Amino acid sequence: MKLGFSLPQFGASAHHPRDIARFARQAEEMGADSLWVGDRLLAAVDPEVGYAGADYIPEQFRAALDPFTVLAAAATATERVLLGTNVVNAPWYPPAVLARSFASIDLLSGGRLLPGLGTGWSPEEYEAVGVPMKERGRRLDECLDALDALWGEGTVRHSGRHWSIPHSHMEAKPVQRPRPPIYLGGFAPAALERVGRRADGFLPIAVVPGMADMGAAVDRPLAAVREAAVRAGRDPGVLDVVLRVNPTAEAAVEDIATAVLEAGEHGVGHAFVDLLYLAEDADRTLDLAARIMEKVRER
Hints:
alpha/beta, TIM Barrel, 39% helix
C-alpha cells in the first residue's frame, strides 16, 4: 500500500507558505509515498451549493494557495515522493496554460507528477473565472483532447468548441512519455463513464468516520468505471486507483489507519490522507502523518 498526505495549502497553513518545503521534505524522510494538493479559488459567503452536501463552505477554504505553486515548492524539496493533484478543476484553465503548468511540475520533479482532474462543484467559483458551469463536462472532455495534442510529438494544433490552439511549437514536454497518467474524479454517472472511457486512473473518496464503507466508496463506483471501460473497448484492468481519505474533525488516528487498511483489502494500492480538518500547522500535521503511517505499517 502506497500512503501519502495532503500538503499544507488551505486555512491557517495558507498563511505560512514557507512551511510547504519543510513539510514535504520531512514527510518524504519519514516514508510518505505521495504528496497532494487541491484546487479552491474562493469560499462564497452565501453559496448556492455548499460543500459535501452541507449548506456552507468550511472556513478552511477561505484561504487557499495556488496548487501549482505548492507543488513546485514540494518538487524542489523532495527527490522520491509522487506529486498529485486531487483535483485540479480543469474547466477553469485554458488547456495550453494547464499543459504548461503540469509539464513544468513534471520537469521540475523529474517525472513524479500524478495529475488528477475534475470539474468542481461551486457555481460562485465558475462565475469568478468567467466559465459557464453548465459547460464543465464538455470542457473537461475537450481539455483531455487538447492535453494529448499539446503533449504529443512535434508541433501542436487544436480546434475545438471551447478552445483553439493555432499551429505552434510547444517543446517543454513532460518527462513522462507519452504523457503523465491522467486521473479523474467524480461520482455522477457521466463522470464515472468519463473515467472508464478516458482516464488512466480513478480518484474515489472515503470520509472517516461516516462513509468508511469501502463498498460504497470504492467498489460500486469502480465497478461502474470498469463497465464503462469495457463499453469503450478498453482493458479495465489497467485503470489505477488512488483513494483520498477525508477524516472529519472527530476522526482518530486509529479510524484513519483502519480505513486505509480496509481500502487495501478492497484492492486499493495507493491512498492519501487529507489532514485539513485535524491540524492547523505543519508540525501538528507532520506528527499526525507519522502516527497514521506507524499504525498502517505495523499491521
